[in-house]
Specification:
With about 450 residues, the protein is mainly β. It has a single domain, classed as Distorted Sandwich (1,4-Beta-D-Glucan Cellobiohydrolase I, Chain A). The protein contains seven helices and 30 strands. The protein has a 15-stranded mixed beta sheet that branches. A hairpin with a 2-residue loop joins strand 12 and strand 13. The longest helix has 11 residues. It is globular, with a radius of gyration of 21 Å. InterPro entries: ConA-like_dom_sf, Glyco_hydro_7, Glyco_hydro_7_sf. It is an enzyme of class 3 (hydrolase). Keywords: Carbohydrate metabolism, Cellulose degradation, Glycosidase, Hydrolase, Polysaccharide degradation, Signal. One of its GO terms (molecular function) is cellulose 1,4-beta-cellobiosidase activity.
């Protein structure tokens, strides 16, 4: 939801860059994943992951001087967008030592806080086919499955796995000033149209840059970067949600002013249509010792059904299943006044949910599932991350939100976390050793990616 709050804490620099530095070699950690045709019949793909550019050191092309320090640009190096892009270079990453990222076979472990030479908080990575291109998934009439361990993620943290309609090459072909591309994790976009990105469309986001008052490392510029986003998984040990967020854009698109926000003038639906079992009325389904027991790893299965059961059809339903200890667990059903007993995301569910909760139906206004499916048909990039939330303390996932609303009103009570929880400074101290592990990623026709005992 508020993924733009992702930051790294470093005495180096935290920024998007479009030139390429030479101080650290960029070596992408290998990560295998599988393509299936039937249960137990899967082929292994040798993929890689790349760290998002926002975590990397941004420095002068011919030296070590920071172009961006704390939450401020160097005015002499970056007086404007074009000059900054020419002066500044993005460098390679020490994945484990600096960023707490460990890839082993089909498993990717992301540590929350890493205290190396510099302190780093969170990370965001993309699955690649090659060293210069992201893998493009086309999920229509497909099933996407992965294993996850959220056992150490408390209130306020989010282990998120999702699809964004990014360019396969990170924007290099469309924007000639982008010399770094997918190899260095450029080209990010999502349905929040984040304005904290340091570079968008090959240019520095320095115009109107305003440092954040509650973060020593981030700020916002005049530009944002929008695209349709499918949150397959946003979760900690307390709560989980899956949420499509359609945008009216065709792929990654720069926004300014009101285009970057929700509402009638925005390009995207930042709220989306979420299915959070707790928010939907089943408070005993997901959590420690519950039906889906978050003290142990489990398998998450997401099915993207089309109206004609083909890979070229219109997206009509998004279903969720879990598998734990060999048992298939059907998704919970809604138990909210005004809602039928839904257990999946459809346009009818989204319309009924928005009415029951008194929310504007931006989901329908931005094209609903049909528009989400159009994004899938073009191809989407897999994003894997861990983050805390400087904008809203993750309360929209695991607590009462909005905090000034009556908690007894439908849709407000989203989890049992206190409204005082999730403050980044607190979480970064008390949960420094938290991590999320994603493993055994599989994709294939409906019913092909999982088995039960």
């Amino acid at each position: 939801m508020h993924r733009s709050a992702l930051v790294a804490l470093s005495t180096l620099a935290v920024a998007y860059a479009q030139q390429v530095g030479t101080q650290t070699a960029e070596v992408h950690p290998p990560l295998t994943w599988q393509t299936c045709t039937a249960p137990g019949s899967c082929t292994t793909n040798n993929g890689k992951v790349v760290l998002d550019a926002n975590w990397r050191w941004l420095h002068t092309t011919d030296g070590y001087t920071n172009c961006y320090t704390g939450n401020t640009w160097d005015a002499s190096l970056c007086p404007d967008a074009e000059t900054c892009a020419a002066n500044c270079a993005l460098d390679g990453a020490d994945y484990t030592g600096t960023y707490g990222v460990t890839a082993t076979g089909s498993s990717l472990k992301l540590n929350f806080v890493t205290n190396g030479a510099n302190k780093n908080v969170g990370s965001r990575l993309y699955l690649m086919d090659t060293d210069t291109s992201y893998h493009m998934f086309k999920p229509l009439n497909q099933e996407f499955t992965f294993d996850v361990d959220v056992s150490t993620l408390p209130c306020g943290l989010n282990g998120a796995l999702y699809f964004s309609e990014m360019d396969a090459d990170g924007g290099m072909a469309r924007f000639p000033t982008n010399k770094a591309g997918a190899k260095y994790g450029t080209g990010y976009c999502d349905s929040q149209c984040p304005r904290d990105l340091k570079f968008i469309n090959g240019m520095a986001n320095v115009e109107g840059w305003t440092p954040d008052s509650n973060s020593a490392n981030s700020g916002t510029g005049n530009m944002g970067s929008c695209c349709s986003e499918m949150d397959v998984w946003e979760a900690n040990s307390m709560d989980a949600a899956y949420t499509p967020h359609p945008c009216s854009t065709d792929g990654q698109t720069e926004c300014t002013d009101d285009q970057c926000t929700g509402g009638t003038t925005g390009l995207c639906d930042p709220a989306g249509c979420d299915f959070n079992s707790f928010r939907m009325g089943d408070e005993t389904f997901y959590g420690s010792g519950l039906t889906v027991d978050t003290t142990q790893p489990f398998t998450v299965v997401t099915q993207f059904l089309t109206s004609d059961n083909t890979t070229s059809g219109t997206l009509s339903e998004i279903r969720r299943l879990y598998v734990q200890n060999g048992q298939v667990i059907q998704n919970s059903k809604t138990s909210v006044a005004g809602l039928d007993a839904y257990d999946s995301i459809t346009d009818d569910f989204c319309s009924a949910q928005k009415t029951a909760f008194g929310d504007d139906n931006l989901f329908a206004a931005q094209g609903g599932l049909q528009q989400m499916g159009a994004s899938f048909a073009k191809g989407v990039v897999l994003v894997l991350s861990i983050w805390d939330d400087y904008a809203a303390n993750m309360l929209w996932l695991d607590s009462d939100y909005p905090t000034d609303a009556d908690a007894s009103s439908p849709g407000v009570h989203r989890g049992n976390c206190a409204t005082t929880s999730g403050v980044p400074a607190d979480v970064e101290s008390s949960a420094a050793n938290a991590y999320v592990t994603y493993s055994n990623i599989k994709v294939g026709p409906i019913g092909s990616t999982f088995t039960s005992s």
